[in-house]
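Data deposition worksheet. Section B asks for the primary sequence of the deposited chain exactly as it was used as input, without tags or linkers unless they were present during the calculation. Section C holds the resulting structure in token form. Section D is free text for depositor observations; keep each observation to a single sentence. Incomplete worksheets are returned to the depositor.
Section A, Depositor: J.P.
Section B:
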Amino acid sequence: MIETRSRKQSGGSEEVIKTVQFSVLRYDPKTLPAPRVDSFNVPVTKGLTVLDGLHYIKENLDSSLAWRYSCRMGVCGSCGMFINSYPRLACNTQVLELKTDTVHLKPLPNFDIIKDLVPDLSVLFEKHRSVRPFIVRRDVSIDELPSGEFFQSVEELERYLQFTYCIKCGLCMAACPTVATDRRYLGPQPLTQAYRYDIDSRDDGSDERKEEALGSHGAFRCHFAGACSEVCPKGVDPALGIQLSKRRAFVASLGLLPKKRLAAVAPPVTSAKRREGTPDAPERTVR
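Section C:
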């Protein structure tokens, strides 16, 4: 710790509790032969997040520092980074709650570095797309869109609801030891999303996901370390999703998996009266 005495920031009303050193890994593959570590002194006020600290550095100390962020409220998942050797969202991590005088920042492991604290998440999204993370219906062609929403009970929704909270931040992939040793392993995020759609009563695409999700680099490569669930900022529990996926595959291999009863399309509502003054819906912009 560099400073312990509280003081007022010049021209402001926030009270500085102490000054903390931000130790930041810097690397630009285009210009630097190897990574280096730069240190910055950041005045910390109550509630200051790591993301706020990075903004302070960029605005006052080094404008060349690069990181990724968007919403600042734990929703977009953009600001994932390695904070004191732990994958976290910078916007959700308050500096004082770290209870340390030095904040060590690195980009998320298990990903290539674009620049400084910016990881290349393209591999994550490629793997995510490979499991077809959307509703697949064989009884409805792409040119025959449903005339209404699909029926689904509360119980059917609750089976997969927890796994829909994923924000694709990449923290689970950064924490996974299997991802670290097998670059082809799908990883906890894609595998959990494959399971999320497999158990959705509206979906009929399990067979189309099987090759990726249950192949040689799929769910059965998971060692159940549980690190993915520990770091997840939204409580998705990817480790649970992967284990349930394994169980489902095992039951299916024995021929004991019940045939899924697909949710039917709800008929159009004709009895409801349209309120006077309600404008017409705009024309479709996507054909």
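Section D:
The beta strands are 7-8, 15-26, 36-45, 80-83, 87-89, 102-106, 113-115, 118-119.
The CA atoms of residues 88 and 178 lie 19 Å apart.
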